[in-house]
Amino acid sequence: APNPIIAPSILSADFAELGRACSRTMEQGADWLHVDIMDGHFVPNITFGAPVVAKIRKHVDQPTQSYGRGTFDCHMMIAEPKKWVKEFKAAGCDLYCFHYEAAFSSAAESPEQKTDEKTNPKALIRYIHDQGLLAGIAIKPDTPVDVLWEILENPDEKERPDMVLVMTVHPGFGGQKFMASELPKVQELRKRYPELNIEVDGGLGVGTIDQAAEAGANVIVAGSAVFGAKDPSEVISLLRKSVED
Ligand code: DX5
Ligand code: ZN
Q1: Where along the chain is substrate bound (predicted)?
Q2: Is ipTM strictly over 0.95?
Q3: Which bin fits 244, alpha (ψ -120 to 50), beta or left (φ > 0)?
Q4: d(Cα 73, Cα 35) in Å, to the nearest integer?
Q5: Which stretches of the chain are DSSP H helices?
Q6: Based on CB atoms within 10 Å of each CB, which residue in 7, 117, 205, 229 is the most buried?
Q7: Alpha carbon distance 195, 141 (integer Å)
Q8: 3-state SS assignment for residue 63
Q9: What is the Rg, in whole angstroms, of the alpha carbon atoms belonging to the chain?
């Protein structure tokens, strides 16, 4: 399996000192920053948009290589993922992870649009790659993993995702209870794709990491477990150790 990557979710940071919170998390051993973008429409909560991402980017050096330290892993919980790709690229996002459900739910205005980026995850992945970003695809707990096979088996690598995110809570809020019911999706993905970056997000912490790591996840998001800890460095290294073993 690929290297462990620990990606603290800054959703649980103090937004009044977000820049400092980001650089501190990096100093505490984070690999990536997980940046939760919510539009109050795809999910029942609002966070922030590209202008804030551009400001916090100045507090964390941009990675010198793909998947490197300081990667901004933007989790786009938004209804119109195509619309914001360029803005987020300009703001310093490195990995643009959209929701499968949103790639289909944005209604096509004309029959031709049914096959374009607005409604087709493969074309959206190509578009994200064309903008110079890594592309991730996320699925909510109610979405079966089977919808991904066709996308992952695409012979055209421009249209294949660089990462799959399996949500282990219903997206929208930090601090929710981990849903172990989602782990068979991770297992199935890992069985078929030994080298794929598989991210889990929601309810991860020292008490739940072993199950997720065992299932095959290697990119670990943790919000409240890291930002709520007395010693965040210790939590980050425990999460990493569990994936390594
Ligand atoms: C939830 C977000 C998560 C959230 C995780 O919709 O996508 O990234 O910050 O928070 P915890 O780790 O507290 O469950
Ligand atoms: Zn997230």
Answers
A1: 9, 75, 172-175, 203, 223-224
A2: yes
A3: alpha
A4: 6
A5: 18-27, 50-57, 85-91, 100-105, 121-130, 149-152, 183-192, 209-215, 224-227, 232-244
A6: 7
A7: 23
A8: coil
A9: 17
223 is in an annotated binding site: yes
Please measure the distance between the N-terminal and C-terminal CA atoms of the chain and give it in whole angstroms.
Answer: 11
Q: In angstroms, what is the span from residue 150 Cα to ligand 2's centroid?
A: 24
Q: Which atom of ligand 1 is nearest to the CA of 172?
A: 6
Is 36 an active-site residue? yes
- Which of 9, 3, 70, 1 minimizes the C-alpha distance to 204? 9
Per-residue pLDDT of 114-150, as tens digits, reads: 556 556 899 999 999 999 999 999 999 999 999 999 9
Q: Which of 73, 94, 162, 201 is catalytic?
A: 201
Ligand nearest to the CA of 75: 2
Cβ–ligand 1 contact at 106 (below 6 Å): no
Identify which of 99, 65, 82, 108 has the alpha carbon closest to the alpha carbon of residue 171. Answer: 99
Tokens representing residue 62 in the block: 């941009």
* Per-residue b or e along 83-112, where b marks 16 or more CB atoms closer than 10 Å to that residue's CB: ebbeebbebbbbbbbbbbbbbeebeeeeee
Write out the two tokens for 190: 């890992």
CA 163, chain centre distance (Å): 8
